[in-house]
Design brief:
Layout lengths: L21 E4 L8 E8 L4 E4 L4 E6 L9 E6 L2 E2 L3 E4 L6 E2 L1 E5 L5 E5 L9
Antiparallel strand pairs: 1-2, 1-7, 2-3, 3-6, 4-5, 7-8, 9-10
């Protein structure tokens, strides 16, 4: 017999950060840096931000990568350590939700109330 609540969980978490959002990093060695979100991993709750979380990777030459060497790449960071920057008021903001007139949900800035989605 299966215990209650031990069933299959939903595939991904709901995150307030989306690809191409401008964000600011709140914690860690890159605190205060701004960047654009390149990738979002909902399953693990992580995001890849341009220019943040850089690490060196030693790449061996292959048929795909002709030139080997040390490559600098961005590593994923936790989505909880970034905050979305509003396009209107240019401030880091918490993300709220609003229901539009056509019934669709949209993200909104909690400072100025403008929609974050384009």
């Amino acid at each position: 017999m299966q215990r209650p609540g031990s069933g299959k969980r939903p595939a991904g978490r709901r995150l307030s950060v989306r690809r191409d959002d401008n964000v600011v990093v709140l914690a860690g060695k890159d605190r205060g840096k701004h960047g654009k979100v390149l990738r979002v991993d909902r399953e693990h709750g992580r995001v890849v931000v341009e220019g943040v979380g850089k690490a060196h990777k030693h790449q061996k030459a292959s048929k795909k990568v002709m030139q080997g060497g040390i490559i600098e790449q961005e590593n994923p960071i936790s989505a909880s350590t970034v905050m979305v920057i509003c396009g209107q008021c240019k401030q880091p903001t918490r993300v709220g939700h609003l229901v539009q007139s056509d019934g669709k949900r949209a993200r909104k800035c909690m400072h100025c109330g403008e929609a974050l989605d384009r």
